[in-house]
Each structure stands twice: as structure tokens, then as C-alpha cells.
Recover the amino acids of this structure.
């Protein structure tokens, strides 16, 4: 088991808190360890900082953990510094192929012809032997799952692929700062209940920061 994320607590600090106690007990119960990487969170105002992001791994993974380190990425617009875990692992070609071929089909049953689905399933089930006659129970389940999967893949509506959101064509320190201001303004506006009154301060801030960012991008592009 490997867990990574914002624990909202400096587990290496000398002070004790209820949250730190809960995390420590959880780590002890599941035999989890981690590596101290230093400061990982800085408030946008720069008035506070802390180490609250960690990657936890079970003790029996220790020999496979190469390193855990902070990643200084110029395009990172988050208040958190990302961490990267380098891990020794062995993924054979066969396993990679199995993972690649795994289907994860989400079906909107409101758009499926259920009568056609039932007819196709019944037709295929009539052609296979009863499970009681199977020597291998797992093989029987695999065969049944394949019938269900193939049938729904055949009649389910094709999902339309949406267009990927374009990334910013340019990036520099000024634009990076503008992105942070825009995100902060949007977050505060959302926290205030998404006000839509034209004179609302938070709506104005959101609009202005968006305009400033677009203006900088156009300026840099030309």
C-alpha cells in the first residue's frame, strides 16, 4: 500500500495535535513510513508555510523505494509543491498488455435498448454449457463476463470524445503570477456563493483577473 497527498499536518513537528495523533496511529497500525521532504505548502500571501504533503509506504516496500523528493516545476500554479516517488518495480510485458487491454466501459442504460440486450444475452447463454458441467469454475465466470461485456459493447451508444482543453501557448513569471491571481479570485468568488450582481466585489475581481491573464497571454504571443 502506498498513499500520497495533502495530510494537512506536519507529522514531523514537535507539537502535538489531535490530527497528528490520528495520522501517527494510522501509520503505526498499518506499518507505514515516509520521508521528510521539507516545506511543501506556502500560502499565496507568503505569510505562512509548512510541510503537510507526504507519500506514505508500508515498511516492506522500503527496499524498493529509491527516493522521495520535491519537484520544482516552473509551470506549477498550485500552493503545494508536488512530490515524486521513485520506486523499483517489475512490470512484465504480459502484465502491461493485460492492463492496456482492460476495458472500463461506463454505460448509460437509459440509452440502451434493453430488449435487444436481453435477446442477445439469452441467445449467447443458450450456446454455452451450464456452469455445473464446467470443470473450471473460474473459466465459467470469465466466459459469462465476456458475454456480458461483448454484448453491451456492441449495443451501447458510442461515447463522443470531447475536445481537449488547450494549454496556455506561452508561460513566464508574469503570466504564472496572473494565473495564481485568477485562481485565487475564482476560488474566493465560489466560496462567496458565486454572486452574479454586476457591482459585486468578488465578481469584479474574478472578471478583472481573467481579463489581465488573457491580456498578458495575447501580449506575449504577439
Amino acid at each position: 500500500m502506498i498513499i500520497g497527498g495533502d495530510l494537512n499536518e506536519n507529522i514531523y513537528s514537535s507539537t502535538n495535535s489531535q490530527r497528528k495523533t490520528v495520522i501517527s496511529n494510522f501509520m503505526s497500525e498499518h506499518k507505514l513510513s515516509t520521508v521528510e521532504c521539507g516545506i511543501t505548502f506556502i500560502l499565496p500571501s507568503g505569510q505562512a508555510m509548512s510541510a503537510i504533503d507526504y507519500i506514505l509506504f508500508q515498511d516492506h516496500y522500503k527496499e524498493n523505494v529509491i527516493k522521495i523528493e520535491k519537484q520544482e516545476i516552473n509551470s506549477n500554479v498550485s500552493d503545494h509543491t508536488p512530490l515524486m516517488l521513485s520506486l523499483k518495480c517489475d512490470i512484465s510485458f504480459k502484465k502491461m498488455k493485460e492492463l492496456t487491454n482492460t476495458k472500463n466501459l461506463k454505460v448509460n442504460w437509459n440509452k440502451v435498448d434493453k430488449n435487444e440486450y436481453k435477446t442477445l444475452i439469452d441467445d449467447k447463454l443458450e450456446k454455452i454449457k451450464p456452469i455445473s458441467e464446467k470443470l473450471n469454475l473460474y473459466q465459467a465466470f470469465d466466459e459469462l463476463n465476456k458475454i456480458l461485456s461483448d454484448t453491451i459493447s456492441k449495443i451501447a451508444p458510442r461515447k463522443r470524445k470531447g475536445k481537449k482543453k488547450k494549454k496556455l501557448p506561452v508561460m513566464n513569471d508574469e503570466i504564472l503570477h496572473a494565473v495564481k491571481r485568477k485562481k485565487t479570485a475564482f476560488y474566493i468568488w465560489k466560496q462567496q456563493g458565486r454572486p452574479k450582481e454586476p457591482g459585486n466585489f468578488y465578481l469584479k475581481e474574478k472578471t478583472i483577473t481573467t481579463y489581465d491573464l488573457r491580456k498578458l497571454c495575447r501580449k506575449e504571443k504577439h
